[in-house]
Amino acid sequence: MSYRTLQYILGAVVAAIGVAMIPAAIVAGIYQEWADMVEILVAALVTILIGGVAWKYGRQAQLTTREGFAIVGLAWIAVVLFGTLPYIATSTLDGITNAIFESAAGFTTTGASVIAEPESIGHGVVFWRATSQWLGGMGIIVLSIAILPLLGVGGVELARAESPGPRPDRLTPRFKETAKRLWFIYVAFTAVEALLLWVGDMSLFEAIAHSFTTLSTGGFSTTSESLGGFSAYAQWVVIVFMLLAGMSFALHYRGLRNPVEYTRDSELKIYAAVIGAASVITAIGIWGGGIGRTVRDAVFTVVSLVTTTGYATADFNQWPGALAIMVVGLMFVGGMAGSTAGSVKTYRIGVLTRASLADIRKVIHPRGVFPVRLGGQKVPDSIVQSVQAFFLFYMFIFMTGTFVFGVFSSAIGPDLDFVSAASAVASALGNVGPGLGALGPTETYLEVTALGKWLLAGLMIAGRLEIFPIVLLFTRELWRR
Hints:
The chain has helices at about 5-30, 35-55, 65-80, 85-90, 95-105, 125-150, 155-160, 175-200, 205-215, 230-245, 250-255, 260-265, 265-285, 290-305, 320-330, 345-365, 380-410, 420-430, 450-465, 470, 475-480; strands spanning about 375, 375-380. With about 475 residues, the protein is mostly helical. Strand 1 (about 375) and strand 2 form a beta hairpin. It is globular, with a radius of gyration of 22 Å. The model is unreliable at about 150-170 (pLDDT under 50).
């Protein structure tokens, strides 16, 4: 393990985050929020200085697999820590705990917030919230498509993004070219959505902020009403771009060149089937108040949950109990591998389902051979085992997290019921945002205990990085020289 190499890369990442704070300062200046502008600039300069010094005195070298895992986990922790500075400098949030929670929710694109009324804080800070989610969304695409496959893990390796074999292509042989093309698609989608929202009932500022937090499947809004405060047109535009953001960006790269690619993708069919079925069930369950509103609320809520965006147009806390169960269930689905969405991912759901059916058939026919197939192709046994191991870890962390979060809440803070605690943990681990009960879509996480917020922030980061890179940070083997 070369610590100077880690220092070199982490320094570059931190410096880049500092540079990304400057547009938020400019926005504050545009709205004549001079104090916020100066304070955000100070936060940016401090971040750039610390990152620049670490980068300058580090050492550039080829990363080993162990160093790669360490960088993945440490980089996300570093950006969350330095991402707190604009909140602290502007006194937007009280205490380091709330700042850490908001920063973690931003960069992990979770969307859970401790800010009850975003419209009451400065435009520069609101823009920084949106920027942190936009950067986090792009970061996870590059991570999952171009970096994690090199380390032997990640959703796109499981989904075999480009090739029919078990190993993925990275769109292009060179990492820089891959990242450049992914950035181009991401920026283009963001710009198109911002334009469409702007011609509706949003201001330019609102349109840009919401396009940032839609394409990243983040869910931070500029108002306490989320998307419920905007027109039906704006809500449908957001639905379309949430759907696009929940799809694999590697698939977008191929599909924009050859639209037939969309019809061939087996994971896209699972993704569409889950959203379609859940939308129909939800619409039937909440029927009333006009067909247009009912269908829109049903589709919007389902797409927001499956893509782990976390926007809301309706308070699903008020829905029938059976739908509440489905709401929690959708938090465990997630979008496609290689998207900005979090949670388990639809490819894994498909593999788990097919593997379970194969096991059932094996019980009936003990001597039979029943390979797991998805989209007509055999899924290698190593990938099936990897998916099953990931899901086992995911559920173990969910159950343990629910227990610990419940203990924290009942021992030193407001006693949360089981539904509130479990949904909050599922939401944090899946990077969704809102939960149920006391932490529903119309509430914030402000009243959660300090220990509870630290736990949820950790779960957000673990879920965003698909668990293993964070778990490995706590193993002795990773840090041996």
